[in-house]
């Protein structure tokens, strides 16, 4: 293989992003993925059923190829989550904001994953998505508590965690999710391709 082939392969690799979508069962992971597919692949919205195992979807976004790994969140599947960690650029952790009773369980699972950072990778960015914000009566309280707990737990570990609220049914709060996944912020960095898809 010549040097030119190696350079071309590396450029393609640099434009790929692997996003692992995890969270407890019924948090809305597949609904978030479905909104992304409907928005960026012009596909009609689908009827959502619980994910058994995993599903992989590839979405073109501003010159990048984003792989979304939607993995089931049932308690029987959680022991297998770490099989999906390799080469993950972004962990999208989805929380059901309306299920306050499960917030502790959700944060416990996320903490277990983050304690295993060498397996997940130290360059992996973390985005916590409080989904179903339209159903959460105490959303500001939950958001504040979640941010406070995450900062307290992980500030010494230097783990950058972005927390945001969304409603995956109508897409509220998701418009800037893919830029955040690809670039680590809502706008491209200098030298990135223009906004046209």
From TrEMBL:
Superkingdom as given in the UniProt entry: Eukaryota
Keyword Transcription regulation: no
Cross-referenced SUPFAM superfamilies: P-loop containing nucleoside triphosphate hydrolases (SSF52540)
Pfam family of the protein (one): Arf
Example GO BP: tubulin complex assembly
Keywords recorded for this protein, A-Z: GTP-binding, Magnesium, Metal-binding, Nucleotide-binding
Residue numbers binding Mg(2+): 30, 51
Residue sites binding GTP per the record: 23-30, 73, 131-134
Gene Ontology MF terms: GTP binding; GTPase activity; metal ion binding
Name this protein carries in UniProt: LADA_0E02410g1_1
Species of origin: Lachancea dasiensis
Lineage of the organism: Eukaryota, Fungi, Dikarya, Ascomycota, Saccharomycotina
């Amino acid at each position: 293989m010549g040097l030119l082939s190696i350079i071309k392969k590396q450029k393609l690799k640099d434009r790929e992003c692997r996003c692992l979508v995890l969270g407890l069962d019924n948090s809305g992971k597949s609904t978030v993925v479905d909104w992304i597919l409907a928005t960026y692949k012009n596909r009609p919205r689908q009827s959502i059923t619980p994910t058994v195992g995993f599903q992989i979807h590839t979405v073109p976004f501003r010159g990048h190829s984003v792989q979304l790994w939607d993995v089931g969140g049932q308690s029987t599947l959680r022991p297998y989550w770490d099989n999906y960690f390799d080469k993950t650029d972004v962990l999208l952790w989805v929380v059901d904001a309306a299920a306050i009773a499960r917030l502790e369980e959700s944060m416990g699972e996320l903490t277990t994953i983050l304690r295993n950072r060498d397996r997940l990778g130290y360059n992996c960015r973390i985005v916590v998505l409080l989904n179903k914000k339209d159903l959460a009566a105490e959303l500001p309280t939950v958001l504040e508590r979640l941010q406070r707990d995450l900062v307290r737990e992980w500030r010494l570990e230097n783990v950058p965690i972005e927390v945001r609220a969304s409603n995956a049914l109508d897409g509220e709060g998701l418009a800037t999710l893919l830029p955040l996944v690809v670039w680590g912020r809502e706008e491209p960095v200098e030298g990135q391709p223009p906004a046209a898809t």
